[in-house]
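Running low. Invent one:
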Amino acid sequence: MTEEATSYRSHYCGRVSEAEVNEKIKVAGWVDSRRDHGGVIFIDLRDRSGLLQVVVDRDQDPELHDLFGELRREYVIQVEGKLRPRSEETINPNIETGTIELEAEKMELLNEAKTPPFPLDEAEQTREDLRLEYRYLELRRSRLQKNLALRHRVSQKVRKYLSEAGFQEVETPILTRSTPEGARDYVVPSRVNPGRFYALPQSPQLFKQLLMCAGTDRYFQIVKCFRDEDLRADRQPEFTQIDIEASFVEEKDIYEISEGVVKAAAEAAGVDLPEPPFPRMSYEEAMRRFGTDKPDLRYELELEEVSDIFRDTELGVFKSVLDSEGIIKALVVKGGEEWSRSRLDEYTEYAQSLGAKGLAWIKVGAGGWQSPIAKFLSDEEKEELVEQTGLENGDLIFFMADQPSVVNGVLSEIRRRVAREEDLIDDSHELLWVTKFPLLEYNQRQGRYEAMHHPFTAPAPESSDKLPDQPEEAYSRAYDLVWNGVEIGGGSIRNHQVEQQELMFESLGIGEEEASEKFGFLLKALQYGAPPHGGIAFGLDRLLMLLSGEETIRNVIPFPKTQRATDPLTGAPAEISVEQLQELHLEVDELDE
């Protein structure tokens, strides 16, 4: 008897092996396919572990053969019989059980099934809303079952690692109050407190700090978080964090703990990562070299600022940008001289779709410099470009001239696209700590400073005197962990002294009254001997996406939402009854369809 045995089965389909040949076994699952070879019927039986071929021969058992002939895809059956080796010509190397098959002696139909709305083996060609409406069918696919199994193994491995490192798993509230931490909150009306609302937590940030004030010392939680924001491949309205906080720590302590978490997760997935410590890079260096604070280090293609080369340029576009305190950066593509004009036009259109006004380029070859802008460049500018960027015959160089945020944002995406299309990305795993972030960033639209991470991040010691008068010069004690260009975790050392937290609020334009109203409970706690503390939160879904090789986190989440934050399976979000609205003291305005 095996550990998976029940009244319906002795083995999982995908876990039987040649060691059980000639044994009587019992399996149960779904009919994945049926093939009738003129007197011999083959069934691929599927459960979460994989496939097992089942065979029935008309000459040996006509009645059982007829029963198998009535089966259809996704019927649920139980089969008993003897396991036997396959003949050499029928071995299937693509499945774990490809060298064996079950010779059926008895079959029971447990349930019939309607024809699925899409073939499960063609689900990827089916539109997403239909797949999500029938997610319970899509989840039967081996690929997604493996992702669910991986999610379980990673969660268990992380729990074990952190528990052995002295961390305690503590639950924090789901119904809390709305606090300005970045994204919009999901709010929940209170029936017993009319006109008042709970908020679903964007993260357990404040509660894990309160746990440090409470002396918990080392906390973790694998927890659901909620953010009402625009969605993309690596975002969902509800997502899962591996949330960590510890007392009496500095950055190096969090790095060591975090590297152990990532290594444990990778071991659960059978992924071999570089040995810690992982390399570190300042935010300033990452932005300068790669245009992003999430650089992918699997390929070079570094950006080069060339503003100084063009200080006296005759090229009007470049000159006007520099006169308005913009910058010019370049990106060299080795061997790019062969690119067609139509491909270059596609890249220009792509840059414009990302917010650029245009994208300049030059191809350098034996015949000279080819480009609409080449005639405006002096020999001295060309020489300096060659010297600074390493430009050679056969290369292509892109230029972007605009404000720094636009230049960095657009060229970093151009860099990604070039690497993908030119097949420059290898299968290595490059992890990087990005450190020394600015503490605050200026929001032009709102005319005020915002916290780059969140309002509870401590300033670097050398930056403490920059607040509140020189906030743009302050650096934080924040850090992000980046894996192959994807941010998998971020955190900081926190403000543990109330005076420092109040100074941070002042720098953000949060007055005493607002701070007391929204964060009074935290400020009060900091006055009662809060220890130095810090932490990090890992996006479990993003981590699983990387470990499984998926392109979207929706493939590692059992029941994800669409990019419009809807659930085609349940129909959420949905209207509620008038009676429910009245209980909550709410009215809904008529909306235009």
